[in-house]
């Protein structure tokens, strides 16, 4: 099993959800996060003074899926989240040891 | 001989104006300031305005009003008397065509907002107990004398200084006091001004603009043509200053900002305050347009160079736009608007000199006496919170409450 952790623009959530629905992977968890990349944020101006806003709001989407589906989900998120501008985000893929569905006690693939 | 007669139309307008000016302080000014601060210091910032309003409300009727409007004593202060407004309400006396009680209530709201304005300079680092001591001391030793000089028949009034609604008494006075107080208090550890909720500040600016019609048009003390004239130039100057601030930002950064526009609105309202009721519409456009240049320059270029931490630019906006407005009335005052004022543009250069004297006197007196009061508080109970409290944010540290639980 794989966990897909995608850091994306907050305004891309709806498009990503629809795209994941379309490929039959609707389950996900979303967290509001803040972060920065190589460009270290943006500049804002208040009363004539410029301020570096070095942590920008992003969404972190977490999805756990069977190994075989990973590349398709990653491609789908990447395509839906992309604008081509700086700040589109990143996707991380990692192994998952075990999964438990709390309601039934089912394990691993049955629990995803 | 003219016999004073109560006019119910005037009285109704003045009661309404009184409520409008009250709205400027709470919640207008309180929101304008609170939106610009960190989310850990929101309630404290609101509280400074609310507590100033409440304390001045009491002081004004216990002993304040006669010290401003009582019989003149050597041009400096009104004669004490009428404590607790003794018999004034009961005796049904008039000021012009309105009851003395209504006039006194109207003037009370001016005293209250003047003190509350100062709080914008010192947010984030002043002890609440020190503020609760500063407010009555400053209202008593600075506001009451200066208001008497200009409006109560004191030496500046005798000299012929023009101040329709408070350019010297309210704005220069509070702006300079803010500068003096923040110099004694010294700067915040973290001077960034990232507003936690700019929407509050914009709502506050809108309420200030709205309430300012009571402030300026109400200062006609009647519901007639002079109030109408003051109403229009107030609106005109605010609009011109807003557009001028936007233009400056556009020329400098290529984009206008909403906070900049709101700052321009307030600067324009401040600048027209002494001149409303004396100037015509073209003059109001010039006054508003120029005032944003004055305040923007001070805030963006002069303040960083001098290094004083006037957190929300009380001196930059109220002090300097107030000075510009007080001088501008000496230039643009038109006898066709108000027979009481003739400025340089209508052949009376002497008026500009008198205005300069009023500006210099208010500046010097407010600065020196505020420094003394601030030093005295600092040496006794202390002005400033501890470093830990400042880092924690004043809502938790001083009030055990938080504006947000997220």
Question: What does this entry look like structurally?
Answer:
The complex is a heterodimer of chains A (112) and B (406). Chain A is an alpha+beta fold. Helices cover 20% and strands 37% of the residues of chain A. Chain A is built from two helices and six strands. A four-stranded antiparallel beta sheet of chain A has the order 2-5-1-6, with helices on one face. In chain A, strands 3-4 form a two-stranded antiparallel sheet. In chain A, strand 3 and strand 4 form a beta hairpin. In chain A, helix 1 packs antiparallel against helix 2. Chain A is elongated, with a radius of gyration of 17 Å. In chain B, helix 2 packs across helix 3 and helix 4 runs antiparallel to helix 6. Chain B has a single domain, classed as Ammonium transporter fold (Orthogonal Bundle). With 406 residues, chain B is an all-alpha fold. Chain B contains 14 helices and four strands. In chain B, the strands form two sheets. Chain B has a two-stranded antiparallel ribbon. In chain B, strands 3-4 form a two-stranded antiparallel ribbon. Chains A and B meet through strand 3 and strand 4 of A and helix 8, helix 9 and helix 10 of B.
Return the string of H and E elements of chain A.
EHEEEEHE
Q: Helix-strand pattern of chain B, N to C?
A: HHEEEEHHHHHHHHHHHH
Largest sheet, strands/sense/barrel of chain B = 2 strands, antiparallel
CATH superfamily of chain B: Ammonium transporter AmtB like domains
Q: How much strand content do the residues of chain A show? A: 35-45%
Number of helices of chain A: 2
Protein topology:
The complex is a heterodimer of chains A (112) and B (406).
Chain A: E1 2-8, H1 13-22, E2 29-35, E3 42-46, E4 49-53, E5 56-65, H2 70-81, E6 89-95
Helix pairs in contact in A: 1-2
Chain B: H1 8-34, H2 42-69, E1 72-73, E2 77-78, E3 94-95, E4 98-99, H3 100-118, H4 128-151, H5 155-159, H6 167-185, H7 198-217, H8 225-253, H9 258-272, H10 281-306, H11 314-332, H12 350-380, H13 387-392, H14 394-399
Antiparallel strand pairs in B: 1-2, 3-4
Helix pairs in contact in B: 1-2, 1-3, 1-7, 2-3, 2-4, 3-4, 3-6, 4-6, 4-12, 6-11, 6-12, 7-8, 7-9, 8-9, 8-10, 9-10, 9-11, 10-11, 11-12
């Amino acid at each position: 099993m794989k966990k897909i952790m995608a850091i994306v623009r907050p305004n891309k959530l709806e498009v990503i959800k629809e795209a994941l629905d379309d490929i039959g992977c609707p389950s996900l968890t979303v967290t509001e996060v803040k972060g920065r990349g190589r460009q270290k944020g943006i500049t804002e101006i208040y009363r004539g003074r410029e301020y570096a806003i070095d942590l920008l709001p992003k969404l972190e989407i977490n999805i756990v899926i069977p190994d075989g589906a990973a590349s398709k989900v990653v491609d789908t998120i990447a395509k839906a989240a992309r604008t081509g501008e700086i700040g589109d985000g990143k996707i991380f893929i990692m192994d998952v040891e075990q999964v438990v569905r709390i309601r039934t006690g089912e394990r691993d693939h049955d629990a995803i | 001989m003219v016999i004073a007669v109560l006019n119910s139309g005037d009285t109704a307008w003045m009661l309404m104006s009184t409520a409008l000016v009250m709205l400027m302080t709470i919640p207008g000014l309180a929101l304008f300031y609170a939106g610009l601060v960190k989310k850990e210091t929101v309630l404290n910032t609101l509280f400074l305005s609310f507590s100033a309003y409440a304390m001045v409300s009491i002081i004004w009727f216990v002993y304040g009003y006669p010290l401003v409007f009582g019989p003149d004593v050597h041009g400096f202060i009104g004669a004490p008397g009428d404590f607790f407004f003794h018999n004034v309400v009961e005796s049904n006396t008039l000021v012009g065509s309105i009851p003395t009680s209504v006039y006194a209530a109207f003037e009370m709201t001016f005293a209250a907002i003047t003190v509350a304005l100062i709080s914008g300079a010192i947010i984030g680092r002043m002890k609440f107990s020190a503020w609760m001591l500063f407010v009555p001391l400053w209202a008593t030793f600075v506001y009451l004398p200066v208001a008497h000089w200009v409006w109560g028949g004191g030496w500046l009034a005798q000299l012929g200084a023009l101040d329709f609604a408070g350019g010297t008494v309210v704005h220069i006075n509070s702006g300079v006091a803010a500068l003096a107080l923040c110099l004694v208090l010294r700067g915040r550890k973290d001077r960034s001004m990232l507003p936690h909720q700019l929407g509050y500040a914009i709502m506050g600016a809108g309420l200030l603009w709205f309430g300012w019609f009571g402030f300026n048009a109400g200062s006609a003390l009647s519901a007639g043509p002079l109030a109408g004239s003051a109403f229009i130039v107030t609106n005109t100057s605010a609009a011109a200053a807003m557009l001028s601030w936007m233009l400056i930002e556009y020329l400098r950064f290529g984009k206008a900002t909403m906070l900049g526009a709101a700052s321009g609105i307030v600067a324009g309202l401040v600048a027209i305050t002494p001149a409303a009721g004396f100037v015509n519409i073209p003059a109001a456009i010039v006054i508003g347009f120029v005032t944003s240049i004055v305040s923007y320059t001070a805030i963006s270029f002069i303040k960083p160079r001098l290094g004083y931490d006037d957190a929300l630019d009380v001196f930059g906006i109220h002090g300097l736009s107030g000075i510009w407005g007080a001088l501008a009335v000496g230039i643009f005052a038109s006898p066709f608007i108000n027979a009481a004022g003739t400025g340089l543009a209508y052949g009376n250069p002497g008026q500009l000199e008198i205005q300069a004297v009023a500006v210099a006197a208010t500046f010097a007196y407010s600065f020196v006496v505020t420094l003394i009061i601030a030093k005295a508080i600092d040496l006794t109970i202390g002005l400033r919170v501890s470093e830990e409290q400042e880092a924690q944010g004043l809502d938790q540290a001083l009030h055990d409450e938080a504006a947000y639980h997220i």
